[in-house]
Write a structure and sequence with these properties.
Layout: E1 2-10, E2 15-16, E3 25-36, E4 43-57, H1 66-71, E5 75-76, E6 84-101, E7 104-127, E8 132-134, H2 135-140, H3 144-150, E9 155-181, E10 184-202, E11 204-210, E12 216-220, E13 229-247, E14 250-268, E15 277-297, E16 302-313, H4 317-323, E17 328-340, E18 344-356, E19 359-361, E20 372-374, E21 378-390, E22 399-400, E23 402-414, E24 442-452, E25 455-464, E26 494-504, E27 509-516, E28 524-526, E29 533-534, E30 539-546
Parallel strand pairs: 2-5
Antiparallel strand pairs: 1-3, 3-4, 4-6, 6-7, 7-8, 7-9, 9-10, 9-11, 10-13, 11-12, 13-14, 14-15, 15-16, 16-17, 17-18, 18-21, 19-20, 21-23, 22-24, 23-24, 24-25, 25-26, 26-27, 27-30, 28-29
């Protein structure tokens, strides 16, 4: 039996105007695993796993204006004081592994997961005349709506209870079989899965009335279900076949995956009888995803590798059946060289991926329905390099000096006019030649450590380049039609340095401590969902890991 317990919490590092309070989180995750290996003629093993996750966070969707972030990057506006999320997840699985022979292994697993969450968060504001204002417009052009957000003008805050439930269940099995045909050695894997998942939303809106000083005058509770009331489900059958074929120094790994999905959705009334069905749909789709990988061993430490892989991403049932959102497809290619020696390991990889019917979250961070939609086609390509070196590995001593460095250069390019049908989507306004949002041209990491037996001290640095917040590649908080929008603009480049240490007291107990963002770097890390957001400031952490 294995029993694990993970607990993590923080009071947060942001400060809510006037009222203060925690802005952090609490996470609790116990997990237990039972093993049983019966004494039979066959080598077999049963394993049962149970896990639970409880998460609470006083987090908001709302960011800041650029000017406010420069003055106080850890500020939160008064209207976010009620924002919080709570979630519970239960996970069960039963695994059975059997080896009928030395060359055959069969693994079967049955699983079930349930997840419930409610994110209670600021959605829009309303002025004294009854006019509603989106939050990204309020922060994009400070005025009356901005003052209501800050608690400096009378009005009301609409806070949405985003109550969702999700569950998944299924059974899957795979067979691994090693055999030889002539000079070729095979490692064949065949698998199948029956999977079912469903989701439901049952949301409400509350209205918080405030005076010109931001004092709460009253809260009008909405009716659960009137701000979203629907269910979706998918029954999926899938099979895969993969064969790793070794011919001397060359290994070829072709494979293919087939997916068949049965999709359904049901919309229910958002007023009156909430059980009344107002819309339904069902349908199916089939997709095939082939791929092949190759590795050629030049010598014991040098090798060449490459491959082609088809990627798939299916839309949600409602968007596929009702709105006609297509399946996203991608074709990915890579080629590289790898060195894997005792002291030095290094890789150099070139990659290219073209996307068709790119699926994006329409109204991302907006006030709409948060639906999947296609955003046209795009290409992403680049080069990645990584090296790891231990200068003391060859000395065979108790001391280690691990050094690592990695860098990725990425180019992204939209190759069609954005197909998003919602003007509030961050992909609207994209044109051929523009860059995809939130893909930096350069990222890099570097680190050095000092290890002695059970002790380790590590210094790591991460560089992230600036990024566009939208497909229109606007550098100002203004959308492609000239309207103010706090989601538009760019993030900022930054170098973040972390210091950490650990001490392994025994096989079951480990002490950890460190400083995140050692130099206290401040920068805009994102403009989603609603406006500019800063990074985590210099933070100190400590912990104890116990396994038993």
């Amino acid at each position: 039996m294995v029993l694990e317990l993970f607990h993590n919490q923080s009071d947060g590092f942001r400060n809510i105007d006037r009222v203060g309070g925690d802005t952090g989180f609490t996470a609790l995750e116990p997990m237990v695993r039972f093993f049983w290996e019966p004494e039979t003629s066959l080598d077999q093993r049963f394993e049962f796993r149970f896990g639970y996750s409880r998460f609470e966070a006083d987090e908001t969707y709302l960011g800041l204006t650029d000017d406010d972030l420069r003055r106080d990057p850890q500020r939160r506006y008064l209207a976010t004081q009620f924002d919080t999320i709570e979630s519970d997840q239960f996970r069960y699985s039963l695994h059975h592994t059997v080896r009928p022979s030395d060359r055959v292994r069969v693994e079967t697993a049955a699983y079930y997961t349930s997840f419930e969450r409610d994110w209670y968060k600021l959605d829009t504001v309303r002025d004294a005349t009854g006019k509603d204002h989106s939050l990204y417009r309020a922060l994009g052009a400070p005025g009356l709506a901005y003052d209501i957000v800050r608690g400096r003008a009378a009005g009301s805050w609409k806070i949405r209870s985003n109550d969702r439930e999700y569950s998944t269940a299924g059974i899957q099995s795979r067979v691994d079989w090693g055999f030889q045909t002539g000079a070729a050695e095979h490692a064949l894997s065949v698998g199948a899965r029956l999977h079912y998942d469903e989701s439901s939303r049952f949301q409400r809106d509350d209205r918080v009335s405030v005076d010109g000083a931001g004092r709460v005058l009253g809260i009008a509770r909405g009716r659960q279900g009137e701000a979203g009331n629907r269910e979706e489900n998918v029954l999926a059958y899938s099979m895969f076949l993969e064969d790793s074929i070794k011919l001397g120094k060359l290994t070829v790994k072709p494979g293919v995956r087939w997916e068949h999905l049965e999709l359904e959705y049901e919309d229910r009334a958002t007023s009156g009888d909430l059980g009344r069905v107002v819309g339904t749909g069902s349908g199916s789709l089939d997709e095939l995803a082939p791929g092949v990988g190759l590795v050629y061993e030049l010598d014991p430490v040098w090798s060449l590798f490459g491959g082609y892989y088809r990627g798939l991403s299916t839309p949600a049932p409602r968007e596929f059946l009702l709105d006609g959102t297509d399946v996203e497809q991608s074709n990915g290619y890579e080629f590289g060289v790898r060195h894997y020696g005792e002291s030095v390991q290094a890789e150099l990889i070139g990659f290219f991926t073209d996307f068709d019917n790119l699926i994006v979250r329409d109204n991302l961070g907006g006030a709409g329905g948060l639906e999947d939609a296609n955003a046209g086609s795009a290409d992403v390509y680049g080069v990645e390099f990584a090296v790891r070196w231990d200068a003391l590995a060859a000395a065979k001593s108790d001391w280690r000096l691990p050094v690592r460095f990695g860098a990725t250069w990425t180019q992204s390019e939209i190759t069609s006019d954005a197909a998003s049908g919602d003007a509030e989507s961050i992909f609207s306004g994209g044109r051929p030649g523009n860059e995809l949002p939130y893909i930096p041209e350069w990222t890099a990491t570097a680190g050095v450590g000092l290890e002695y037996r059970r002790f380790g001290l590590y210094l790591d640095a991460t560089y992230t380049g600036d990024m566009y917040g939208t497909a229109s590649n606007s550098t100002e908080p203004v959308d492609f039609d000239g309207n103010p929008d706090a989601r538009y603009g760019m993030t900022e480049e930054a170098v973040v340095v972390d210091l950490s240490l650990q001490y392994q007291m025994n096989d079951n107990v480990r002490l950890i401590a460190g400083i995140s963002n050692l130099t206290d770097e401040e920068y805009i890390v994102s403009r989603l969902p609603y406006g500019a957001r800063s990074n985590q400031p210099r933070s100190y952490f400590g912990g104890l890991e116990i396994r038993f």
